């Protein structure tokens, strides 16, 4: 189960970066025939919101645990 969660999270992060790259390409090309830059930015925002919601649900259900104190040495 843990590996599936990691794969989903990494997949969402990759799709966020991919859509950001596609938006940059659309902005540079300025092509009015293809998809606009706002389409890719909107998809990036949707994937980011989905990832944040997924992480909050998984933390709330206790499936994953955040590091409570990242500065404390063990």
Q: Could you describe the 3D structure shown?
A:
By secondary structure, the chain is an all-alpha fold. 72% of the residues lie in helices and 0% in strands. It is built from 2 helices and no strands. Helix 1 runs antiparallel to helix 2 (37-61). The radius of gyration is 17 Å and the shape is elongated. The two termini are 27 Å apart.
Distinctive features:
single chain; 2 helices; mainly alpha; 0% strand
Question: Which helices and strands appear, and what pairs or packs with what?
Answer:
Layout: H1 2-29, H2 37-61
Nutshell version of this structure?
With 74 residues, this protein is an all-alpha fold. The chain has helices spanning 2-29, 37-61.
Low-confidence stretches: none
Radius of gyration: 17 Å
Major sheet attributes: none
- Oligomeric state of this protein: single chain
N/C terminus separation? 27 Å
**Mean pLDDT rating:** 88
Written as H for each helix and E for each strand, in order along the chain, the element string is HH
**Helix vs. strand class:** mainly alpha
Shape verdict: elongated
Percent range for β-strand residues: under 5%
**Percent in helix:** over 70%
| Separate helix tally | 2
Give me the count of strands: 0
């Amino acid at each position: 189960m843990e590996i599936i969660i990691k794969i989903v999270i990494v997949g969402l992060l990759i799709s966020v970066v991919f859509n950001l790259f596609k938006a940059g390409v659309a902005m540079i090309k300025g092509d009015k025939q293809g998809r606009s830059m706002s389409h890719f930015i909107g998809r990036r925002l949707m994937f980011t919101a989905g990832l944040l919601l997924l992480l909050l649900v998984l933390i709330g259900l206790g499936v994953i645990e955040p590091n409570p104190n990242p500065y404390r040495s063990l």
